[in-house]
Write a structure and sequence with these properties.
By secondary structure, the chain is an alpha/beta fold. It has helices spanning 16-28, 62-66, 101-110, 131-134, 154-164, 174-177, 179-186, 202-206, 211-217, 221-229, 242-245, 266-273; strands at 2-8, 33-39, 50-53, 87-90, 94-96, 113-116, 142-148, 191-193, 199-201, 232-234, 253-256, 259-262. It folds into two domains: 2-193, Spore Coat Polysaccharide Biosynthesis Protein SpsA, Chain A (Alpha-Beta Complex); 199-273, no CATH class. The strands form three sheets. Strands 3-2-1-4-7-6-8 form a seven-stranded mixed sheet, sandwiched between helices. A three-stranded mixed sheet has the order 5-10-9.
Length: 277
């Protein structure tokens, strides 16, 4: 079994942003599934397969923790998720295109806490060995997807509540200001990164600093093979939100930070454009 968790607050996204990945996951999955949505929304018509959970009590105010997506730390609170089940958190702007059982197997096989790639150099592999040499530096993983066993990380919720409230350095601290930096910092001993054959950010996999570079990269046989087998693609960044992507024409140039590409992904566009009740 795989437990899939989403976190939704406020009114920016409706129930369709939960129901869409739920139904796509069900379509492709070869394992039993349990869906949980941690939310303050008790009005929306979520898919019947989704179990809703209220946010746990934080020591900081709810509104304060909206900044830096720190409300996502709710998934580590005891009693929110069922213990003993491999768990995959997904951001709402994640596109599902493969069997999540592959992700479940990866979590079980390797243990620890899994995040998405953020750096070109995979130095997460050695950071626990070189810790004395690098001081308080750590590999910054991306939390658009997080894999873990819930019972192994209850302590992280407690640590967050102890650390975040009243810390005079919070305003200027990268570690305290964003959920994925906090996770990366405090879980550095057990942090792993999902392989790009399973989960990727669209910007990291499908965009490059130069248009010609992405055009060339997309033709490489091993890149084509990797992309065909990917289970999910996340679309982090305001310029890559689904409501913007569905308006693109084939060949339109899109940019995110220093990266760019020409839009040629009809499969992705159809996924986001399909209406979900």
């Amino acid at each position: 079994m795989l437990q899939v968790v989403f976190v939704k607050w406020g009114t920016r996204y409706g129930a369709e942003m939960i129901n869409r990945p739920v139904r796509a996951i069900q379509k492709h999955a070869s394992c039993d599934l349990r869906f949980v949505c941690i939310t303050d929304d008790d009005q929306s018509n979520f898919d019947s397969a989704v179990i809703t959970r209220p946010f746990p009590e934080f020591t900081a105010s709810f509104d304060h923790l909206k900044g830096g997506c720190r409300l996502k730390m709710a998934m580590f609170a005891p009693g929110v998720l069922q213990a003993g089940i491999p768990t995959l958190f997904l951001d709402l702007d994640t596109l599902i295109r493969g069997d999540v059982a592959q992700v479940r197997n990866h979590i079980v096989r390797h243990g620890g806490i899994h995040m998405m790639k953020s750096h070109y150099l995979p130095w997460w592999r050695v950071q626990k060995w070189v810790g004395p040499l690098i001081g308080n530096k750590y590999y910054h993983g991306n939390s658009s997807a997080v894999g873990f066993m819930p019972e192994n990380y209850y302590w992280l919720f407690d640590q967050f509540n102890k650390t975040i409230v009243g810390d005079p350095s919070e305003a200027g601290s990268k570690t305290l200001g964003v959920d994925d930096r906090f996770i990366s910092c405090y879980c550095r001993e057990t942090l792993r990164v999902f392989p790009t054959s399973l989960l990727v950010k669209f910007s990291g996999e499908y965009m490059s600093p130069f248009l010609a570079a992405e055009s060339l990269k997309s033709q490489l046989p091993w890149v084509k093979s990797r992309r065909e087998g990917q289970v999910a693609v996340t679309f982090a960044g305001e310029s890559l939100k689904p409501d913007k992507l569905i308006t693109l024409g084939q060949g339109d140039e899109i940019r995110y930070k220093w990266l760019k590409t020409r839009w040629q992904y009809e499969e992705f566009q159809q996924y986001w454009a399909t209406r979900i009740a």
